[in-house]
Amino acid sequence: MNGTPPRGLSDTLPDEAEAQFTLAGRLLGRLRRRGYRLVQTPLLDYVDTFEATGDPALDERLLKIVEWETGRVMAVRSDFTPQIARLAGGLLRHARPPFRFCYFGPVLKFDLRRGTKKHEEVQVGAELIGPGGAGADGEIIELCVSLLRDAGLRGFVVQLGDVRFLRAVTQGASARALGKKEWPALKLGGLVGRRSGAAPALEGPSSILRSLAGRVKSAAARKVLSDLGQTARRINRRRSGFELRVDLGEVRDLHYYTGAFFQVFHPSASGAVAAGGRYDRLLSRFGHSHPATGFALDLRTLSGILSGPARSTRHVPRLAGSRFA
Q1: Is the Cβ–Cβ distance between 104 and 24 less than 8 Å?
Q2: Residue 323 — left, alpha, or beta (φ > 0 → left; ψ -120 to 50 → alpha)?
């Protein structure tokens, strides 16, 4: 017996544990004051709950256990959102949306493509089920930004994207070409004035939404730009202490997200502090089709930034996978 936890996992000592617990209480208090009701889901759930996301790499992200009474396969929670969708599916039998839920707890990730095969996160998150469109997207992203600012975080970057944009301008390109950003294969016929084979300028400050609107031929792509512009204006009302950027060339989880998504980065963290987006198809896997969007904050990362000295860097990393995958 070596007295240490499994690789990729860690103990939390009193000072850090108390700081995280206090921070979680503050965040959840603010969420509840905004009308988000606290729910709890089990750490173990049947694997088909998580399979509802359609993630082709799911087997690499789950720790599975067989339920001896029934022989059914269970898994340790890797993502709160499918469980919230399952919970909402049950409520929809006798209640009408909108539902506003918040949650707090650990998730366990396994991913053989990353340097760490497994890692544990403690998340605080919120889900908005029922409303669709830019108004709901703006509510969720503005809520996340306000939580971070109220917690004392400054100097962070909010990166906004939408999976619908490239689909609209790439004339039905394959998911493989989209995921690998194979620009020549994508046939970007929905954009004008592009040199053959060159990646268009799809990343920058939120002002690029206006400049792109004049180049886009696709009506669907113009609608995406309009929706993102509305969302960006709402977020920019809280512009102090952070930077808003747009990346329409970023493709995240085509199997999971259906519209606007976002990530929050800070110079002191190697990965995202928060992430979220719209997942309108997920609830249909549990018997009810309703729009939905949400986010999760990485509590340990946020607490570490707030309690430690900031490190300066110009690099903003990109995150692959669903909600800190």
Answers
A1: yes
A2: left
Would you say residue 1 lies in a domain?
A: no
Integer Cα distance of 305 and 161 in angstroms: 25
Among 325, 293, 298, 322, smallest CA distance to 24 is for: 298
Phi, psi (5° rounding) for residue 181? 55, 50
Residue-number span of the structural domain to which 40 is assigned: 14-307
Any idea how long the chain is? 325
- Domain CATH code at residue 254: 3.30.930.10
Beta bridge partners of residue 39, listed in sequence order:
none
pLDDT on residue 254: 61
Domain count, the chain: 1
Structure confidence by residue, pLDDT tens digits, 205-223: 999 998 888 878 788 989 9
Identify the band that residue 123 occupies on the pLDDT scale cut at 50, 70 and 90. very high
The pTM of this model reads: 0.87
Task: Please check whether residue 2 lies inside any domain of the structure.
Answer: no
Tokens of residue 318, six digits = 């990109």
